[in-house]
């Protein structure tokens, strides 16, 4: 749609004003618009459109379409005053038809839809539910001749349960189908039934109003959801670079985990080797200890012999062998064994701090306590742990 704009500068030279500016547009079909425009030169805000057909709209616009509150007059004399959306009557309003009849109530996409009242030019009046421009649901029709029908309608015809009250006071309660009564009972008075139907009509009208409010709320929530979806798309596009960086970090992390597993395997192998060496060391020490014991027994046997003429060579040989074994025994206590003994001493020292005096007395007799140095360390640790009883025992 081609548009031609005239007059539009703000009052400050060289600056664009943020306030809406009233402009005049001449459309290609000859329609004339005067009012506020958006950045795309479309009616947006408040304005008046004089259509080439002779119709005229005055009210609110949004992105080039009638949306909001506004009034429309048509060349045939009809008019509408109410709410609009997307260029259609939507919401509530009042429509005056060319024949003089008037509808006041709910609209949807330009048609009577919801709850409303239609007053015909001849005086007949319908109040109740509408659907797609027709009487549909619970409603009350007061005909021009005085007859009143309270009941159900479908597509503009009486259809379902209802009560018809005539001018002469008679009333009929029954079932209608396609505007014809089928199976009815004539009664002189059905005030209670009429009141019941009217109560049902009022309840239905209330439900219809609630439904209309829910529809409006649903429309608002959908608009918010669309906005959130757009924002989510923007965030997703912005996070593509972050996703790539995260993928690279995960690959680097996987490589680090691979190296950690390899180091762990090496540590496990070293621990096994350490255990094997410690076991071999203990076995060797045990063998040397057995040999020392045997030699000591042999030395004791030799010492008991009273043979002055016998040379001392065997005894001296045994003594030298014992000294050699002791030296080899001390050499066997390698740095690894000493470290293990130190670890066992520290574990024992820490455990002592939680023992009773009786248990501590038994542990103190263990060879692991060993040297004077260990005893000094144990005494200082007991004092720091406020275990003076153990410090005195050391």
Which keywords apply here?
single chain; 394 residues; alpha+beta; Histone H3 K4-specific methyltransferase SET7/9 N-terminal domain; 16-stranded antiparallel beta sheet; 7 helices; 45% helix; disordered N terminus
Number of separate helices: 7
Uncertain segments are 1-18, 306-312
Indicate the percent of residues in helices.
40-55%
Mean pLDDT: 79
Q: Look up the CATH topology of the domain at 3-10 and 18-221.
A: Histone H3 K4-specific methyltransferase SET7/9 N-terminal domain
Q: What does this protein structure show overall?
A:
This protein has 7 helices and 16 strands. The longest helix is centred in the last third of the chain and has 65 residues, at 240-304. It is elongated. A 16-stranded antiparallel β-sheet has the order 1-2-3-4-5-6-7-8-9-10-11-12-13-14-15-16, with helices on one face. Among the domains are: 3-10 and 18-221, Single Sheet (Histone H3 K4-specific methyltransferase SET7/9 N-terminal domain), CATH 2.20.110; 335-394, no CATH class. By secondary structure, the chain is of the alpha+beta class. Helix 2 (240-304) packs antiparallel against helix 3 and helix 4 packs parallel to helix 6. Residues 1-18 and 306-312 have low confidence and may be disordered.
Please specify the SSE layout and strand pairing.
Blueprint: E1 3-6, E2 22-27, E3 32-37, E4 43-50, E5 56-62, E6 65-73, E7 79-85, E8 88-96, E9 102-108, E10 111-119, E11 125-131, E12 134-142, E13 148-154, E14 157-165, E15 171-177, E16 180-187, H1 191-238, H2 240-304, H3 313-332, H4 335-352, H5 357-364, H6 372-384, H7 388-393
Antiparallel strand pairs: 1-2, 2-3, 3-4, 4-5, 5-6, 6-7, 7-8, 8-9, 9-10, 10-11, 11-12, 12-13, 13-14, 14-15, 15-16
């Amino acid at each position: 749609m081609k548009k031609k704009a005239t007059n539009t500068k703000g009052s400050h030279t060289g600056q664009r004003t943020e306030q809406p500016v009233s402009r005049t547009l001449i459309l290609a079909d000859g329609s004339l618009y005067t009012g506020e425009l958006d950045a795309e030169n479309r009616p947006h805000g408040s304005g008046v459109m004089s259509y080439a057909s002779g119709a005229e709209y005055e009210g609110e616009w949004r992105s080039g379409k009638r949306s909001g509150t506004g009034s429309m007059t048509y060349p045939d004399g009809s008019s509408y005053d109410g709410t609009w959306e997307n260029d259609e009557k939507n919401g509530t309003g009042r429509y005056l038809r060319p024949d003089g009849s008037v509808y006041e109530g709910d609209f949807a996409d330009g048609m009577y839809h919801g709850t409303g009242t239609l007053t015909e030019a001849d005086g007949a009046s319908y109040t109740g539910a509408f659907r797609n421009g027709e009487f549909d649901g619970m409603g009350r029709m007061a005909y021009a001749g005085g007859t009143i029908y309270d009941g159900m309608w479908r597509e503009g015809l009486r259809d379902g349960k209802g009560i018809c009250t005539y001018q002469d006071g008679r009333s009929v309660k029954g079932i209608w189908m396609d505007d014809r009564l089928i199976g009815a009972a004539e009664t002189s008075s059905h005030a209670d039934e009429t009141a019941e139907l009217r109560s049902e009509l009022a309840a239905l009208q209330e439900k219809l109003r609630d439904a209309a409010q829910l529809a409006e709320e649903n429309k608002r929530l959908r608009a918010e959801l669309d906005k959130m979806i757009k924002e989510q798309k923007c965030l997703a596009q912005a996070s593509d670079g972050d996703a790539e960086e995260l993928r690279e970090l995960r690959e680097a992390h996987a490589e680090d985990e691979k190296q950690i597993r390899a180091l762990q395997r090496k540590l496990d192998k070293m621990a096994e080797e350490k255990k094997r060496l410690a076991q071999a060391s203990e076995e060797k020490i045990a063998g040397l200890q057995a040999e020392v014991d045997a030699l000591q027994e042999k030395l004791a046997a030799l010492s008991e012999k009273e043979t002055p003429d016998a040379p001392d060579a065997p005894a001296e040989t045994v003594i030298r062998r014992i000294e050699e074994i002791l030296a080899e025994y001390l050499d066997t206590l390698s740095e690894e064994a000493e470290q293990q003994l130190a670890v066992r001493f520290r574990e024992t020292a820490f455990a002592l701090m939680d023992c009773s005096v009786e248990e501590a007395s038994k542990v103190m007799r263990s060879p692991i306590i060993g040297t004077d140095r260990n005893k000094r360390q144990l005494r200082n640790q007991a004092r720091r742990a406020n275990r003076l009883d153990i410090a005195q025992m050391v």
